[in-house]
Amino acid sequence: MAKKSLRSQPQQRLYSLDVLRGFDMFWITGGGYLVVLLSRMTGATWLEAQMEHAQWAGFHFEDLIFPMFMFISGVAITFSVKSKLQKNVSKKKLLGKVFKRLVLLFVLGLLYNGAFQNGFANARIASVLAQIGVGYFFASLIVIYFESFRSRIIWVVGILVGYGVLQLLVPVPGFGAGVLDKTGSINSYIDQLFLPGRLYETTYDPEGILCSLSATGITLLGTIAGNILRRKKTTDWQKIGYLVATGVGLIILALLFSSFYPIIKRVWTSTFNMLAGGISFILLALFFLIIDHWKFQKWAFYFRVIGMNSIFVYLFRRIINIYDLSGFFVGWIAKPLGKSGELVIAIGALAVVWLVLYFMYRKKVFLRV
Prior knowledge:
Blueprint: H1 15-42, H2 45-50, H3 62-86, H4 91-112, H5 115-118, H6 128-145, H7 149-169, H8 186-194, H9 209-230, H10 236-257, H11 270-293, H12 301-307, H13 310-319, H14 322-334, H15 341-362
Helix pairs in contact: 1-3, 1-11, 1-12, 1-13, 1-15, 3-6, 3-9, 3-11, 4-6, 6-9, 7-9, 7-11, 9-11, 10-11, 14-15
């Protein structure tokens, strides 16, 4: 039987998107720690550094994980929202759904931050999940009410340029304009003025008000990638070409502008958006080529299982100490090995998480928000 082309099935769920999401979450579920242990054993200190966030300006592999998840959410928006609009679901109903998602992610963010455990008096309000919710909400809003591809590009450019102008040209009382550090940035000023609760870094929050609004930019970039993949009139190779060309263009622009506008994740500069977005475009093209075009899919099942329950595994890792759980099962192997036993525990932790997700996958239990 001949394989069906994606060109004739633009609405089907992209296998590669779930796999890329799972690959992204793999590093959070324990893959990053595993690489750290291996780098220490082999003396590859440069590799260990890549598993940590850049201290301020700069870019490490670890800095890609969060924005790429938001990018993937943007790709999913195009498929879900556009398909519902084509089925004549009202825009008001769609808006209600994405607003509920925003509220739910905000509440789950509070759960992740321990607000329900420690009380709300000194709770941290900002969170990774809340930022995902904000980016998803505003990107969905733009997709719902500005349906043309051109208008979405205008919105992306407007957000990136507008945010850059805000960070570089708007003066902060006592510091002036263009200060991009922990105390003098416009991000710090806005967070201290308007963000309730405890700030993660005392003077600002890396998931604060302006960071969350800026992150809408990379989510919108994801919707542009999704639009490329949904187009009926283009072949798979044309789609891959458009994705790669866009990604390379964004990376070049980010590096050019970084000479005067640094790449800083902690205040989510527009150059950071462009660099992370560019890499995400290229990785999406690569996964799409291998998995959805060439149909090499069996190897990717491990990641797909993770990607189908990404929000659940993020919360699971926070609430459950998986390394203690791993030690409960494989401690008898790890203890006699001394330092090398840490590697056994790390591998066991990855196995525990995946088996939980696999059980949920088999039972078709997916946390949808």
